[in-house]
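Need tokens for this chain, all 61 residues.
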Amino acid sequence: MTSGFQCAGCGEWNETVVDPTAGIKQTYVEDCQVCCKPNVLRVTWDKSAREYTIAAELESS
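Here are the structure tokens for all 61 residues:
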């Protein structure tokens, strides 16, 4: 399922694919497609909207 997130580093919008078989709450790291900074994505299934919502923050080093 395709979803999107705003990069926590540069603010650009990124499209990503969420694996629905991984559950209704997921956390993983994905690099921004524009600035290449690693974003920690916290993915949650929104039952009422029937879509995934993604909160992004920069990965701390």
